[in-house]
Specification:
Blueprint lengths: L1 H18 L59 H14 L24 H9 L1 H7 L1 H9 L12 H13 L1
């Protein structure tokens, strides 16, 4: 009986080892900050951008998906608006976003160096559609472990105040 049990255990171990090999997942999806998979002719040019995280990707052309189509920011920061934005941020956003470090969601410090004001506003106002249809928002969702941004149902005015606060960070 002991020999049969040992034999079955050995067979089970061998089966698990042979079936559980380390396979790489292949994906044809193009991630933000990455180029398409290399062909023999283009092997040298594809590695440069492939290591950039979506949260570090700079895209100052994408305006996102939502109600904000164009937004011109004045040269000077409106301190009163920024103060209101800081209050909105503290009550609605800080559960997931810390100003200067990665948390459940990305840190907003320096966001205007990487995203357009329209994209930021649309992400605040329309996070569900953004994560479904905007390539950068999709990539961020993946980077942040599938934690979707909660729609806080801010008004455009509140979202603009939060954006103004981001300008002060």
């Amino acid at each position: 009986m002991k020999i049969i049990m040992k034999s079955l255990a050995a067979i089970a171990i061998v089966t698990l080892i042979s079936c559980g090999g380390k396979e790489e997942k292949k994906s044809n999806d193009i991630q933000i900050g990455q180029k398409p998979a290399a062909t023999e002719a283009s092997t040298e040019t594809t590695n440069a951008a492939s290591d950039v995280k979506p949260s570090e990707t700079v895209d100052l052309t994408n305006k996102g998906i939502g109600p904000i189509k164009n937004l011109e920011l004045p040269a000077e920061i409106d301190q009163a608006m920024a103060a209101k934005g800081m209050e909105v941020y503290k009550t609605k956003c800080m559960a997931c976003h810390k100003p200067d470090k990665k948390f459940i969601g990305p840190a907003p410090t320096g966001i205007l160096e990487r995203r357009t004001p329209e994209w930021i506003m649309n992400m605040i106002l329309n996070p569900e559609e953004m994560t479904k249809n905007d390539p950068l928002a999709k990539a961020l969702l993946i980077e942040f472990n599938g934690s979707p941004m909660a729609n806080q149902n801010l008004t455009e005015e509140e979202a603009r105040q939060v954006l103004e606060y981001f300008r002060t960070l």
